[in-house]
Amino acid sequence: MSGEFVSSVCTIIAARNASSTIAAAISSALNDPHVSEVIVVDDASTDATADTARASDDGSGRLKVIRFDINKGPAAARNYAIECSSAPIISVLDADDFFIEGRFAQLLSVTNWDIIADNIVFIREQSLPDFDRRCVPRFGGAPWALDLATFAERNISSRHRQRGELGFLKPLIRREFLTRHNLRYNENLRLGEDYDLYAWALAFGARFLVISNCGYGAVVRSDSLSGRHSTGDLKNLAEAAQLLLKSGILSRQAARAVGAHARHVRSKYDHRRFLDVKARQGLAAAVVMSVRDPATILPIAHAILLDKYGGLARLWHSERALSGNDGKPRYLFDHPTI
């Protein structure tokens, strides 16, 4: 491969115990001529992630593998990768996902953006061997601008609809914009760190464009790290949501949407905390805790009712949440705008 690249894109990959998937992720990045750097940060894996990553080098000199001895979380790993890179454009790739051929050519053909993202195809792990990346349909339509109110609203999840939160987006970000606004991933977060960064960027006026064509493949796994968040993770995300809400830089419309999202996250945390206390100290102690904070009573009661009567529906939706019926691939959005 020639040492001259069409553009300077750095792909950063935070990885933990991803030895079975990291090679495919790296390969999909190195195969794109627009990528000038691939920075992998092994976040204290207990498997052969770092060795597998190094073995994926194509000899072009673009791959750098760094290993943490102590697990620090995806936000810290990504921040470190950003600091170790120099390309003017940063792209994020999860260690079990992949880029679809031609992705960066499509994104970089668009002008006047600080952040730009494309569509995502979700593939169940069991269907991956039969998935043909060449057969991903092309979605047309002009780029459209994403504002903070829409972004926040589209990150309020529901148990009764397919997952479609825009926090799933894996955009390209101009380094200059991050530097100018002193933005990095919030290292207190191990859940929702993408949402938090994009929301702050939009609050600072980022021109965030989205194209409907699909260039990112996300593999849906039952044992994904993102699906095993703790009560503490929810607490930290709730606190981060409040920090943005209280920043004083939001428009009235954005503040309403960010506030709704913050309340949604807080209700999930309050419910999880109630269940934790119930498990440790019994139902009476959990009820006393909620009574001491009356604002939590209705959200907790609502969540308990959904848990009690929505078990079968929840199971059905969880199986189809990120992939279509019968395990067929599903797209984050199917139309030029959402």
UniProtKB/TrEMBL annotation:
Gene Ontology molecular function terms on file: transferase activity
InterPro entries found in the cross-reference section: Glyco_trans_2-like (IPR001173), Glycosyltransf_2 (IPR050834), Nucleotide-diphossugar_trans (IPR029044)
Gene3D superfamilies: Spore Coat Polysaccharide Biosynthesis Protein SpsA, Chain A (3.90.550.10)
CDD domains: Glyco_tranf_GTA_type (cd00761)
Record's keyword terms, sorted: Transferase
Residues covered by the Glycosyltransferase 2-like domain: 12-120
Protein name per Swiss-Prot or TrEMBL: Glycosyl transferase family A
